[in-house]
Automatic annotation (TrEMBL):
The protein's assembly and partners: Homodimer.
Amino-acid biosynthesis among keywords: yes
Protein species of origin: Trujillonella endophytica
Molecular function GO terms recorded: methenyltetrahydrofolate cyclohydrolase activity; methylenetetrahydrofolate dehydrogenase (NADP+) activity
Keywords attached to this entry: Amino-acid biosynthesis, Histidine biosynthesis, Hydrolase, Methionine biosynthesis, Multifunctional enzyme, NADP, One-carbon metabolism, Oxidoreductase, Purine biosynthesis
Designated name of the protein: Bifunctional protein FolD
Protein family membership: Belongs to the tetrahydrofolate dehydrogenase/cyclohydrolase family.
Length: 289
């Protein structure tokens, strides 16, 4: 029997519907959420992601604030927009689309963001909160993966999870998230220095492939019945090529395809972060009796 699809597109659509009512309630109470984005450069993939984020916002009623800089922008140009978004009351949360051009220090930019407006959960303070296990915005792709598994009843607690890739948007925070008490998985974080990737993959109940190496996870490396989530993005002849070979569906129990799996969940969790932050702000602004 072929694997069950972890349908990120349909799941994200359901989440957007759920968020619409919460945005309407916030707006009626004078706390309309607004998502800001900063896109630096002209990478077509990044532009597509940013445009998709704003079209999602329009669908649920979140206001959009779009800022752009040319590929030649330097750190000072980027920091000037970050300061502007930090100060803009209509912008309740924002993201800086990654990756940034080589000449711009990504970490200096993330650090300059107001952690209370960090809709990506990538500010060092918010990553620190994740390490400590205290409340804060969670990185969108990792929390999207957990939500996708939960909504398809894939058991996480006690599972052996192998994550391939240690980047800051997926692998590293996903390891932290899945090992919290509330998720309770055992995580092996594999990367280019891993000596025997095949043996780790073959033992996994859940595989998250985020290496950006087309076809890295082949069917002979997957335990029968395992859940396999493809997060790798490479472009081959203008089309997305994921990290997971097509015939893995013949052995896996669940597969999150790419496209149509984790990507739409990343966007849905961004909206959720914006709504959660606006709800927290609204609760704080209610005068106590
Ligand atoms: N500031 C951030 N930058 C980046 C992040 C991030 O979470 N924050 N993650 C990725 C890109 N990303 C979000 O920005 C993202 C990736 C994929 C998708 C998506 O919906 N993909 C679709 C297909 C898209 C296509 O056809 O090209 C899918 O998988 O079905 C949305 C957002 C790096 N940068």
């Amino acid at each position: 029997m072929p694997a069950t699809t972890l349908d990120g597109k349909a799941t994200a659509a359901a989440i957007r519907t759920e968020l619409t009512d919460r945005v309407a309630a916030l707006t009626a109470a004078g706390h309309r959420p607004g998502l800001g984005t900063l896109l630096v450069g002209d990478d077509p993939g990044s532009r597509w992601y940013v445009n998709a984020k704003h079209s999602d916002c329009a669908q649920v009623g979140i206001a959009s604030i779009q800022r752009e800089l040319p590929a030649t922008a330097g750190l000072a140009d980027v920091l000037a927009v970050v300061e502007e978004l930090n100060a803009d009351p209509a912008c309740t949360g924002y993201i800086v689309q990654l990756p940034l051009p080589r000449q711009v220090d990504e970490y200096a930019v993330l650090e300059a963001m107001d952690p209370g407006k960090d809709a990506d959960g990538l500010h060092p303070t918010n990553l620190g909160r994740l390490v400590l296990g205290v409340e804060g915005p969670l990185p969108c792709t990792p929390v999207g993966i957990v939500e996708l598994l939960r909504r398809h009843d894939v058991p996480i607690a006690g599972a052996e999870v192998v994550v391939v890739g240690r980047g800051i948007t997926v692998g590293r925070p996903l390891g932290l998230l899945l090992t919290r008490r509330s998720e309770n998985a055992t995580v092996t974080l594999c990367h280019t220095g891993t000596r025997d990737l095949a043996s780790h993959l073959r033992a996994a109940d859940i595989v998250v492939a985020a290496a950006g190496v087309p076809g890295l996870v082949t069917r002979d490396l997957v335990k029968p019945g395992a859940a396999v989530l493809d997060v790798g993005v490479s472009r081959v002849d203008g089309k997305i090529a994921g990290d997971v070979a097509k015939d893995v569906v013949e052995v896996a129990g669940h597969v999150a395809p790419n496209p149509g799996g984790v990507g739409p969940m990343t966007r849905a969790m961004l909206l959720q972060n914006v709504v959660l932050a606006a709800e927290r702000d609204a609760a704080r602004s209610v005068p106590s009796a």
